[in-house]
Specification:
The chain has a 6-stranded mixed beta sheet, with helices on both faces. It has a two-stranded parallel ribbon with strand order 7-8. It contains 15 helices and 8 strands. Strand 4, helix 8 and strand 5 form a beta-alpha-beta unit. It is an alpha/beta fold and about 325 residues long. It binds adenosine-5'-diphosphate and magnesium ion.
């Protein structure tokens, strides 16, 4: 289980601490409402920081729009029902589900739908105990930590094991369902995982299915998008691709995509880490070469070409 705090770098949102102005004079335009909540900033960062994911970005914006309008309605004294915000994020590994969940937590916080905007990420083992009587306290403990924020349940379908009649996962599901219904103004649950398994899970858990209001599907990245993601990761780490290395990295991506256990952006991140290791040992071996900043930050084609992705199958090391 890991716990990620809400917006650290950004100022406290207006939504969480409404100014007297907000209470007295409701905003007259969407732009004013957006300015009041500062949600546009998070949406812009999402657009800017994450490569691709257009359908996901559109859906996130739609959800934000719904909530902004909902707030406006409330401020105008119109009837509102607290919207159901539980979501499912489906897609293959490394497609950005956890990353977007964090942004979603920030958006919900800005708009005042969760008090703190932190994200607690868990899997089955964090919720389900090994012995009778252990599951309920475990699940409740996790729920307590997540209150006021987002509970992100990765591979949520592992909670349900129909082949095992006595499985304690069912107990966790029932507690989750209760809280998702009764405390939905204080906790948003995001279930994540592979699309097909999630669909099967929903089919056998109509209670869960009916509580999930938003389904976001994360597509696999194209080779171009993966290359752009790689450039961004390298940039963040103050590395650059040397002459010819971009072409080699593209060839690497195209090969890697067809190989087993390919995990989209995560595979890329790992590949770049290995390239950095090779760069370091290459520089380390050239004992007498002057190492300027340029050399220290450049990934050369050879740093990528040494990957086993380029070796003919059967020779893998
Ligand atoms: N669209 C993107 N743009 C830039 N980096 C991304 C993008 N999608 C994923 N990443 C990076 O790839 C890694 C895996 O993403 P993650 O959100 O953990 O995927 P998932 O939860 O779907 O397995 C993270 O390091 C993340 O920063
Ligand atoms: Mg993840």
């Amino acid at each position: 289980m890991y716990h990620l705090p809400g917006n650290r770098a950004t100022p406290p949102p207006a939504a969480a601490q409404p100014t007297p102005v907000a209470a007295e004079a409701p905003p007259r335009t969407v732009a004013q409402a957006m300015a009041q909540t500062q949600v546009e900033q998070v949406l812009a960062e999402l657009d800017h920081d994450l490569v691709g994911l257009q359908p996901v970005k559109t859906r996130v914006r739609d959800i934000a729009a719904l909530l902004v309008i909902d707030r406006l309605r409330a401020q105008h004294g119109l009837q509102t029902q607290s919207p159901s915000l539980h979501m499912s994020f489906t897609g293959n590994p490394g497609t950005g589900k956890t990353t977007v969940a964090l942004r979603m937590a920030a958006i919900l916080h800005r708009l005042g739908y969760v008090r703190q905007g932190h994200l607690v990420a868990v899997t089955r083992d964090d919720l389900v105990g090994q012995y009778i009587g252990h599951t309920a306290p475990k699940t409740r403990e996790v729920l307590k930590k997540a209150m006021g924020g987002v509970l992100f349940i990765d591979e949520a379908y592992y909670l349900y094991k129909p082949e095992n009649e006595r499985d304690y996962g069912q107990e966790a599901i029932e507690i989750l369902l209760q809280v998702m219904e009764n405390q939905r103004d204080d906790l948003v649950v995001i279930v994540a995982g592979y699309k097909d398994r999630m669909e099967t899970f929903f089919q056998s858990n109509p209670g869960m299915n009916s509580r999930i209001a938003h389904h976001l599907d994360f597509p696999d990245y194209t080779a171009d998008e993966l290359l752009a993601i790689a450039q961004r990761i390298l940039n963040e780490q103050s590395y650059r691709l040397g002459e010819g290395a971009t072409d080699v990295l593209r060839a690497y991506i195209e090969r890697r995509m067809t190989q087993p256990h390919f995990a989209n952006a995560r595979s890329l991140r790992n590949a770049l880490e290995r390239a950095r290791l090779r760069q370091a040992s290459r520089l380390f071996q050239a004992q007498d070469v002057a190492l300027d900043a340029q050399r220290l930050c450049t990934i050369e084609p050879s740093d990528i070409l040494a990957s086993r992705v380029f070796q003919v199958s059967g020779e893998q090391t």
